[in-house]
Fold:
Amino acid sequence: MSRLKSNYRKNVLGPVWLVLTPVLNGLTYYLIFGLLLNLSRGIDNYVGYLLIGVFGFQFTNKVVMAGGSAINNNRKVVEAFSFPRASLPIAASLRETLGYIPGYLAMLVLILAIATPDEITWRWLYVVPIVALQAIFSQGIGLLLSRVIAAAPDFLNIMSFTMRIWMYASGVFYSFDRFANRPELAGLLDVLEGNPLYQILSMLRGVLLYAESPSLEQWLLVGAWAAGAYAVGFIVFWSAEETYSREAK
Structure:
């Protein structure tokens, strides 16, 4: 919490950037993909669709990047002291998770103010467990990447490109339905729809914009991804616990 507060003090606008950054990104994507490329065609309430996509992806991006770079950013501490190394990526991921709560609250306010959902129902309460699963999944990926980047620091340089590809594969600003009439893409679409972040964004859009409850299949798929990512990430990270001090030198 103290690190989070200190980060706020580094900028004049402080925590306002948690909201301003995804809003500016959303405006940019709307101008390019919604208006110029007309990817909004066939999507009900495209403004809300885009808001959820941008805010939702930004959350995972921040948590994954913070967790993934935690060891690399604290090499002197790792080299000098003996402590559970997993505390670094876990703390970094938790810091970004706590810091993004205002961002998600701002997203809800923006949806009410400018997106006009079909109706506001009790299904909005589903946002809490959906975002909780997203946080667990993102922190697990952060742990896994922290191990990879600790062993190969150069991988940090391509993380931004990897996250950008993930964004395009998650339907942040367009719908996969526009490719439903192309049978040659059927196999690829099946793979993309299994993308956990795509499913998370679809669940959020369903409950917030279209008054639709997530299906049992979605809960099971996202829950399995969250539990599996955290378990694998923690085990892979912990298995190399004794190597981090040597790699830091």
Observations:
- The longest helix spans residues 127-151.
